[in-house]
Amino acid sequence: MNDFIWWSGLTRTECQSALEMVRKDFISETINNRVFWMRSDICSPPPIKKSTLLLPPFDEFVVSYKDRTELIQDKHYGKVMTKNGLFSPTVMLNGEIVGSWKKVAKKGKPNVELTFFEKTPKRVENLFEPEIKKVETFYSH
């Protein structure tokens, strides 16, 4: 609710009224004593499958939250979000920001380079190959 108040500019009462109007279409989940609301038709990946994403800077998944505790460890915060409000493209694994990425040109072709915050096994890095291909294909057109 606090994030909704923060980015909407509405009062707590107005936000609670708005939530009541659409409550039937949403479910909530409490994580670390914070309530998160999402559409009731959301599809979660099976627990055995890793979820990988390469997100652009200012993606709503990242910027929609004032408190990003569940998304990124404090010690890595400044690596993708500066104090003056700039965001870097992020590497996400299972909903957590674990690195950043950038586009570089190699032999005239766009390539995506990942930088992980911590030592990452090659098998985990390889999980990002489909995402890398999507971004490189996008920049190739």
Descriptive notes:
This protein is of the alpha+beta class. The protein has helices spanning 2-8, 12-22, 60-63, 77-80, 122-126, 129-140; strands at 26-31, 34-39, 52-55, 90-93, 96-106, 109-116. The strands form two sheets. The chain has a four-stranded antiparallel beta sheet, covered by helices on one side. A two-stranded antiparallel ribbon has the order 1-2. It is globular and about 55 Å long.
Write a brief structural summary.
The chain is of the alpha+beta class.
Key descriptive features of the protein:
6 helices, single chain, 141 residues, two-stranded antiparallel ribbon
What is the secondary structure topology, with strand pairs?
Blueprint: H1 2-8, H2 12-22, E1 26-31, E2 34-39, E3 52-55, H3 60-63, H4 77-80, E4 90-93, E5 96-106, E6 109-116, H5 122-126, H6 129-140
Antiparallel strand pairs: 1-2, 3-4, 4-5, 5-6
pLDDT < 50 runs, ≥5 residues: none
Per DSSP, what share of the residues sits in E-state strands of 2 or more residues? 25-35%
Sheet with the most strands: spatial strand order: 3-4-5-6
Biggest sheet architecture? 4 strands, antiparallel
Which percent bin holds the helix content? 25-40%
Number of helices: 6
- The total strand number stands at 6
What series of H and E elements makes up the topology?
HHEEEHHEEEHH
What is the CA–CA distance across the termini? 40 Å
Tell me, rounded to a whole number, the average pLDDT.
88
Integer-rounded radius of gyration: 17 Å
Supply the helix-strand structural class: alpha+beta
The rough form would be described as globular
